[in-house]
Amino acid sequence: MTSPKAILRGAFAAAVLVGTTLAARAADIPSPRQEPVAPVPLAPALTFKGAAYLWATGLEGRMRTLPPLPTVKVDIGFDQVMKNFDGGIMGAGEIGYGRYLLFFDVIASKISPNKTVYPAGVPAGVKVDSASFIGLAAVGYRFVDTDRYSLDGFAGVRGFSTRNTLRVQLLPGTLKLSESEQWADAVIGARLRLNLTPSWYLTTIGFVGKGASRYEWDVFGGVGYVIDERWSAFAGYRAMKVDYRNGNFIFDALQQGPVLGLTSRF
After folding, report:
1. Cα–Cα distance for residue pair 115/200, rounded to 1 Å
2. pTM for this one?
3. What is the pLDDT along the chain (266 residues), one digit of tens a residue?
4. Neighbouring C-beta atoms of residue 234, cutoff 10 Å
5. Of the four listed, 22, 139, 218, 219, which is most buried by Cβ atoms within 10 Å?
C-alpha cells in the first residue's frame, strides 16, 4: 500500500505541475491594449490687464465748438496744450477669458487757457474752459495665438463728450457762453503683437468707424518691453482723426503725438 506521505507528495507535485502549465498558458495570452489617457484640458482662466499712459498730443483741424462764434482753423502743439492743461486721465484695460476679450480705452482731459485783453484801455478777463471725454468699449476674439505672434479682432462703440465754456469778465458783470455735445460711433479694429525676444515685442492696434461722425480712425504703433511676469512698459506713436458735424457744431480734428505707458497684469 501507498503511504499517506507518498500520496501527499504526489498531490503536491501534481498541483505544482498544473499551476506551472496554467501560468505558461496565461503568459501566452496577449493582454488587452491600454490606450494612453488624454490629459484633461484646463478651464480657461480670467485675466486682467490695466495700462496707464501719457499721450503727448497736439491738435489740428477745423473747429466750431462755441456757436455763434465762427469756425476756426486750429493748429496747437503739445507744448501749448500742456501749458493750459488742468488735468486728465488716460488709460486702457482688458479682460480675457480664453480667446475672448473685453477691451476699454478712456481719455478725459480739461484745458483752460486764460487771457487778459484791453479793449479801449479797459482790462477784461477772458477764460475758456474745454473739457472732453473719449471712451471706447469693444469685444474681441484672438484668432491667432502662438509664441511668435498674436492677432485679435474687435467690434465696439466709441463715445465722445465735449463741453466748452467762454467767460468774459467785464465789470460789473460776467458774460458766459457754454456749449456741450455728445455722440457715438460704431467701430471695428484689429491688434497685432510680434514677439522679437522673450522681453521685447512690437505691437500695433487700430480702429475705424462711423455713426454720428462722418468717419473716425485711430491707430497706434510701438515697441514694448516685458519687465517681469506682471509689469511691462511701452512707447510709440498714436494718431486719431474725427470728423463730426451737427448743425453749427463742428469738430473736424486730428490728434497725434508720442505715447509712453506702463501695463500691469493681475
Report:
1. 46
2. 0.77
3. 555 555 445 544 544 444 555 445 545 555 556 566 556 556 678 999 999 999 998 889 988 887 777 787 888 888 877 777 778 899 999 999 999 999 999 999 888 766 555 555 555 666 677 889 999 999 999 999 999 999 999 999 999 999 888 777 666 667 677 788 999 999 999 999 999 999 999 999 999 999 999 999 999 999 999 999 999 999 999 999 999 999 888 889 999 999 999 999 98
4. 19
5. 218
